[in-house]
Amino acid sequence: MSVASPADMEHYYQNCYPFPAIFSWLNRQNESKRNDLKDNCIRTREFAMAFRSGAYKRYNSVSTLPEFKEMVVKFNPDRFEIGAMYNKPPKDREILMKSELVAKSKELVFDIDMDDYDAFRTCCQGAQVCDKCWKFITLAIEVINVALKDDFGFHDMIWVYSGRRGAHCWCNDERAMQLTDMQRRNVLDYLNVIRDRSLSKRLALKRPYHPHLLRSLNMLKPYFMEFILEEQDPWRNDNDALKTLLPNLSDKNLTDALTKYWVSDEPNRSSLDKWNDIDEFASNLKFNSPQRRKDFMYRLKDWKEDIVLLILYPKLDIEVTRQLIHLLKAPFCIHPATGNVCVPIEPSTFTPDKAPKVSTILEEFNNNNSNDRSSKSLQPFIDYFQDHVTNFNNDFNKKRKLDSIEVKTEIKTETKVE
Fold first, then answer.
1. Shortest CA distance to 156 belongs to which of 418, 393, 406?
2. Residue 79 domain-assigned?
3. Is residue 284 part of a domain?
4. pTM of the full predicted structure?
5. Which of 107, 132, 150, 153 is most buried, by the most CB atoms less than 10 A from its CB?
């Protein structure tokens, strides 16, 4: 059940939701070498409405900013979602043959959720999130950002808080927008290395690591000791340690010695102590030859590196990314369970407690008697988003101008050749 009433949501959409900024963000042109820049692209953008009753209305579209606001205020949804740009306005779907409406482009989007870290976070449970466990999301964002920039050459990304336990990435580069379903799946396969975060099976990543994985390991390793072993301490419970840490050590003597030590001799040792015990006990094992000892210590090092990646490397929601037709919740919507606004974030400084609540925003609006009815809680996030949109539009216009000059030059060259 939503924490915001229909009247609250209508008030929020009518008076507080930043429709101009969202409209400007979405209303960009599809680029082409031959200057095919006729339509404002929001005409062909799909919007979907999700209602408190569980109903879901797809294939809505608008042409103007007033129409955009009027649509959302009229429907007053629990949330609304943004989809692909089609070859025709989605609202005309009923008068078109099914094959005539084709998704053409959309932002490359990613979804990271705290659910995938529940086995290793001890500070919170269920829907709860705090500053400590939010570090899982912050580190995941950093890994994804670096890969998108360094490996794919994308630069225009913005992250949006999901409203409860995760974050969404919107990658707006024109190259990203034009990716086909197959290309999106390829990007996803490249990034989505960790598909099962269970320690019951060994991760067994190939050596040497792919450069992306090696870079990610070097980024994440410095946080493992303080954040996982000390703050989260997921293996303080001896049974949990026996079930998750020991099965993949590949040496029965080491496993038996550690089991006896943790259960009988020194129960309830911290995760940091247990992590160090593994190295200490391994160093005392007897081997038939120095080479066997060396090989085993290499395998142990590989195993520990795999665990760092297994726990801290981001796991992505496959369905969100892999298809053009998939929709994603619009920025600045309200999360129905928490009342939090899904605000665009600066990943390095944001924590969930900084997200404004719809109740606070409406109270601020109602208590402000001046002509400025903006919410002091929401406005910094609107400003941050507007700066992103302005920078994006400036870059887009510069590129469009350069492309136009390039096309004119090509035409002149072709004419001379003829």
1. 393
2. yes
3. yes
4. 0.89
5. 107
